């Protein structure tokens, strides 16, 4: 028998977005033996439409290091980008560049290889990298973000790829000018994609089953006592304005102790689909918006795609286009994490296809942790946003350092 050389490490982070980078920066300062794998800020580089702006305000778009010396405001000042804590939209390209600089400054040894497979092993896990190398780790944190969870409605799944795409793929759409494109959905990704496709010369319509499209309110310009009173009624947090958002932002460990039905209801219902305030200018008066139309089915007809919708009165309406973009969001489902071996996935206790986690983010598989959107049903809507990386890294680092 030939012995295979296997590298050992105590701890592996899979994913190099805001959660993975923030946690790694904290662990590095504490001297924890770990490795982090993944392409830095890959979601923001490859899966967000070029020209998009972040929905979050500047102060809520940081990646976190323990000394807070690498904030977004510091990056923007060094490189001459416009910045304000509130009121100046952040281009996705600036956020991506900020994340790359954060990684190069604080985590120069990050390994950009991808983890192709994770299997259980005595005392931990075996991780096979995309070049075939094997790493053995005692503990693994899954910090992969949303890319694995893009949701395409079943009515669209049978269409050939030249006729349908998800908004996470819209950066790869070639030559949209002059094409008739239907964008389905009423949230931020749908509105942003529609506005940017319109700017590129496409003939775009937004179609949503909702009765309207909600836009976040632009920042107000109150001062003095007027501002103090407004903030008393609606305090600001990294998730937006209001006491519910403030509590979700400040009390995730309390949320974790709440009854499961309550947690699921709040996570599902709070901060639902809405477009950022800057997105309104991309579509208002420029892109037709059709409301109260529920998707029924779609089929290819010649060189076009015909999409049938059910109207609120029960009737049907067909629309014909060159392409359909699904701005239908993301649904966490750990069964879509195909790099996790089936035997591991089968052992994970689930809540609506998401992992049921301890107060330190550990799943029912000892040594396997989930952070970011995968943890939202356990810790609340905070974990759906980059702002949640602050709580996560500060909360987990002492646990892992022990």
Automatic annotation (TrEMBL):
Coiled-coil spans in chain: none
InterPro entries named in the record: Auxin_biosynth/cation_transpt, FAD/NAD-bd_sf
Pfam families, A to Z: Pyr_redox_3 (PF13738)
Keyword field: Oxidoreductase
Name listed for the protein in its UniProt record: NAD(P)-binding domain-containing protein
Naturally occurring in which organism (per UniProt): Nguyenibacter vanlangensis
């Amino acid at each position: 028998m030939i012995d295979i050389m296997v590298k050992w490490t105590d701890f592996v982070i899979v994913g190099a977005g805001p959660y993975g980078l923030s946690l790694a920066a904290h662990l590095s300062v504490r001297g924890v033996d770990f490795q982090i794998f993944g392409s830095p800020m890959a979601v923001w580089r490859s899966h967000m439409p070029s020209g998009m702006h972040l929905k979050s305000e500047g102060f809520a778009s940081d990646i976190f290091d323990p000394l807070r010396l690498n904030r977004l405001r510091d990056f923007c000042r060094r490189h001459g980008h416009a910045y304000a804590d509130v009121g100046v939209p952040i281009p996705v390209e600036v956020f991506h560049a900020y994340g790359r600089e954060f990684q190069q400054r604080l985590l120069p040894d990050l390994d950009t290889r991808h983890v192709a497979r994770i299997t259980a092993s005595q005392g931990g896990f075996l991780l096979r990298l995309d070049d075939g190398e094997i790493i053995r780790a005692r503990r693994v944190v899954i910090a992969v973000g949303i890319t694995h969870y893009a949701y395409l409605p079943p009515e669209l799944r049978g269409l050939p790829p030249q006729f349908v795409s998800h908004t996470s793929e819209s950066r790869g759409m070639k030559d949209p000018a002059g094409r008739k494109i239907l964008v389905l959905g009423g949230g931020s990704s749908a509105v942003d994609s529609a506005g940017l496709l319109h700017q590129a010369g496409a003939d775009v319509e937004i179609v949503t089953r909702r009765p309207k499209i909600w836009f976040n309110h632009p920042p107000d310009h109150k001062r003095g006592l007027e501002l103090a009173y407004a903030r008393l009624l609606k305090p600001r947090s990294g998730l937006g304005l209001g006491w519910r958002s403030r509590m979700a932002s400040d009390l995730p460990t309390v949320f974790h102790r709440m009854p499961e039905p309550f947690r699921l209801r709040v996570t599902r219902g709070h901060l639902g689909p809405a477009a950022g305030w800057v997105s309104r200018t991309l579509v208002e008066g420029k892109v037709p918006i059709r409301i109260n139309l529920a998707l029924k089915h779609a089929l290819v007809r010649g060189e076009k795609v015909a999409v049938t919708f059910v109207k609120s009165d029960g009737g049907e309406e067909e629309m014909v286009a060159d392409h359909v973009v699904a701005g239908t969001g993301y649904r966490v489902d750990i069964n879509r994490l195909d790099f996790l071996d089936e035997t591991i996935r089968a052992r994970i206790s689930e809540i609506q296809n998401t992992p049921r986690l301890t107060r330190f983010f550990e799943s029912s598989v000892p040594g396997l942790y989930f952070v970011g959107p995968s943890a939202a049903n356990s810790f609340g809507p905070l974990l759906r946003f980059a702002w949640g990386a602050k709580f996560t890294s500060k909360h987990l680092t002492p646990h892992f350092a022990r």
